[in-house]
Amino acid sequence: MTISTGQVGKAISVNRLAEIFLELQEQGAHNINLVTPTHYVEAIMAALDLAHSATPALHIPIVYNTSGYERVQTIQRLADYVDIYLTDYKYASPELATRYSSAPDYPNVALVALAAMVQAQGEYRLNAEGLLEAGVIVRHLLLPGHLDDSLEALEAVFATVGNKVCYALMNQFTALPTAPAELQQRVREADYSKLIDFALDLGITNSFMQEGETAEESFIPPFDLQGV
User: Fold this and answer.
1) Which domain holds residue 23?
2) How much is the CA Rg of the chain, to the nearest whole Å?
């Protein structure tokens, strides 16, 4: 909420953004993670052009961290800029997509976008150190009381891209005070176990799963403009 509704931020020029990319690389970052970046895509491409032509040049992977609600045309334009897509597939149900994201077409739009991401990047690939260097990771966050929709969402994704992607199945939903009443609870451990079992039964072989207490406010980072 700090950045989505709190009007917290700082104006950054294209030149400064390129400098930030290079500074992160100099500090030892494994990649540049662009979070919810689509509304700034023109500026990001311009900054990446500058950073890639600098001396020394930017050479670490670029991660496009997105909700999945993307146009295929955007993904095609980013073909020469993005190495890794870290994308969501949030809902299978238009009703849930409408209720929680005001986007009834989300299930179809995100699935088409996911297919385009995989077409652009191919199967996910690790480097010699075991770090992802290219490809797609698909996140799905189990919502309290909505196991059935999660099973449908996982089935839809697997039918579309199979094991060409890596799956991140999450149980860390943390309700904010503004969340609807039915979400003011945590994910049941039994429901998360059923989701994992379903993924294995589908044939998913590449995945991240969560253990322990993940639904904590400590998982929400401070947005203090550090490094900007």
Assistant:
1) 12-59
2) 18
